Amino acid sequence: MTTSEHVWTDDADEQWADAFTLAAARLPAVRHGDIMGWLDEVHTAVGDSEVSAEALYGTPDEAAEHLPAGMPIARRAAVDAEGMTPREAADGVLMTMGAFLLGLAVWGFATRGWSLDVTAPAAALVAIVVPLGTGGWTTALLLRRNGRLRASWLAAATVTLLAAVAMASTLLVADPDQVVVTVPVLAVGALGLVTATLGWFLPTPDAVVDDRSRDWPADQWYLRLEGVLRGRHGVARTAARTAIEETRSYVEESGAPHPYNEFGAPEIHALHVWKSL
After folding, report:
1. Which of 142, 145, 147 is nearest to 221 (CA)?
2. pLDDT tens digits for range 215-256
3. Three-state DSSP class for 180?
4. 80, 146 Cβ separation under 8 angstroms
5. Is the per-residue pLDDT at 78 higher than 50?
6. Sign of the C-alpha dihedral, residues 277, 154, 140, 163?
7. How many whole angstroms separate alpha carbon 20 and alpha carbon 60?
8. Interatomic CA distance for residues 37 and 70, integer angstroms
9. Is 68 exposed, middle or buried (0-12, 13-18, 19+ CB in 10 A)?
10. Model pTM?
């Protein structure tokens, strides 16, 4: 039995299936069920033809690259450039915060014993690294990948300003040697463990495209299309705006009342445009 959950009569096919599983798992929007469904087909084809999986489907990497094409485009369009939904990104933030706190607890126990004397600069540094740095900058990046460029810049600027104010005010006003609170190392470790566990075990809903864009004003739909092209797919500003104008002209010539009627959600059309560039 391999990671592919199939029994193979040939060792080469078993290795192919394992390599395919690993390659496919790295692709955006691909889920475990998609991989298993494809391997069901491969397993049946190999058994019926008595020809190796690589001879039928190419190398594992080549076969994996074809997998997303058979998936619903709405699901592929609903994830960001790394194949993550907003919820998955939030889970990643929780696990990162948890790992930082666990590391801090281990360091504290090794160097300070059972309790940590926290000074004002240290408290400010932890606040900057954990909620502001990890959470804030991840939020800004996630907003950009979801096509909300203005909100992304605003979030990034706000996080940077808050971090600068927190550290500057602490260094200028607070006594750097004054202990403001004593924290048990076990409490820090427990908080880190709980945070990381939540990030790991909370269920992740399937990615879906937000169909509310059908009710947006047309200009908002076009603005989000540009944002997704630039923020998620890395299309240059000029090329993105050229695509917007072509889309707008097509909608006007077709007489459609709204771009959604012709192209669906902005994320879906952005995926089509990006693949055509």
Report:
1. 147
2. 999 999 999 999 999 988 889 999 999 999 999 999 999 999
3. strand
4. yes
5. yes
6. positive
7. 4
8. 11
9. middle
10. 0.67
